[in-house]
Design a protein that fits this description.
The protein has 332 residues and is α/β, with parallel strands linked by helices. It contains 10 helices and 15 strands. It is globular and about 65 Å long. The protein binds phosphoenolpyruvate (PEP) and manganese (II) ion.
């Protein structure tokens, strides 16, 4: 159950109530928001006078649940709004990894030329092998920060472990929690302690409920700026890298209140499918797209097979803009 207490209750009373109903809580705009384990149907008598509103919940999809907030939440990425009723589709574009000043500067120029707002680039790469390129780390973050300054782009980059959160917050506008990190509660709890937007990618072996519950770790700590990203799940099919779960996206739209980003690049794993998939994603009525683009994909230090080259990306963005016009979305 989610409980909103009356405004300006003193801390001691809030803590008493939280203990009584076994809730965790955070305080926002002078209102304490308590979340109890799911299943509690009625308010205990002794707290009724302190409660403003409450929502019984059947399971632990609570703060992210549409039953709690029927409107999709908005999250501010720099000056760009994602979610809500904006009709914005934020196209997060850029290379898999930040590799050099020259590389990230040229990707930034491409993004600016196409009037797009949000640049991606990994600096702490969660690779499957310890022998592959692990990312430029802090040096890469500083390059992203430079791009933010020079080109006025929003920047998103991932954390590989919780010790990197402070650095990532300092140099970027969104913290990306990767698919492999979705279950890392150290990372999720650290993300909960900031107000920085957090984009959580779906673990490729997790159910939709588990995915949404990862978001609950951040929301219930008081950070309401959470974005969900579907990036493909593992199925029996090995012809493509993963399987983009568009049915799952319909589920997320139906049952959750968080902005939704779709990542066809990591789902497909091969450049040839990205253009068609991106259009299918846009047709789903989502809030953002994540597409990897590199000046020289063949020689990329990570995810070489799936990154678009500039010509492919430029053509795709043109097509997506035309489609967005018809569907009344703003591709930003
Ligand atoms: C990435 O965005 O480059 C990445 C590693 O994604 P994922 O966590 O979805 O594999
Ligand atoms: Mn990648």
């Amino acid at each position: 159950m989610i409980i909103h207490l009356k405004k300006n209750l003193n801390k001691q009373r809030i803590e008493e109530i939280a203990q009584l109903v076994k809730a965790i809580f955070y305080v926002k705009d002078d209102i304490a928001v308590l979340v109890t384990p799911a299943g509690l149907k009625e308010l205990p008598k002794e707290i009724q006078d302190d409660v403003d509103q409450f929502w019984p919940m059947k399971n632990d999809l609570q703060l992210a649940n549409k039953q709690y907030r029927s409107e999709r939440r908005t999250v501010k990425i720099g000056n760009t709004i994602i979610g809500g009723s904006t009709n914005n589709v934020v196209l997060i574009g850029g290379p898999c990894s930040v590799e050099s000043l020259e590389q990230i500067d040229s990707a930034s120029i491409l993004m600016k030329d196409l009037n797009l707002s949000t640049l991606r680039g990994g600096c702490y790469k969660p690779r499957t092998s310890p022998y592959s390129f692990q990312g430029l780390g802090l040096e890469g973050l500083k390059l992203l920060d430079k791009m933010r300054e020079k080109h006025g782009l929003n920047v998103i980059t991932e954390v590989r472990d919780a010790t990197q959160i402070e650095e990532v917050i300092q140099y970027s506008d969104v913290i990306q929690v990767g698919a492999k990190a979705m279950y890392d509660q150290g990372i999720l709890r650290a993300c909960a302690k900031t107000q920085k937007p957090v984009l959580i990618k779906r673990g490729f072996g997790s159910t939709l409920q588990e995915f949404a519950q990862a978001a609950e770790f951040v929301l219930s700590g008081g950070n309401e700026n959470v974005i969900l990203c579907e990036r493909g799940i593992r199925t029996f099919e090995t012809g493509t890298r993963f399987t983009l779960d568009l049915c799952g996206v319909a589920w997320l739209k139906e049952y959750t209140n968080l902005p939704i980003v779709l990542d066809p690049s990591h789902a497909m794993g091969y450049a040839y499918g990205i253009s068609d998939l991106s259009k299918a994603c846009l047709a789903m009525g989502i809030d953002g797209l994540l597409i990897e683009v590199h000046p020289d994909p063949k020689n990329a230090k990570s995810d070489a097979a799936q990154q678009l080259n500039y010509a492919e990306f430029t053509k795709l963005v043109g097509e997506l803009k035309a489609m967005a016009g018809v569907l009344n979305y703003n591709l930003v």
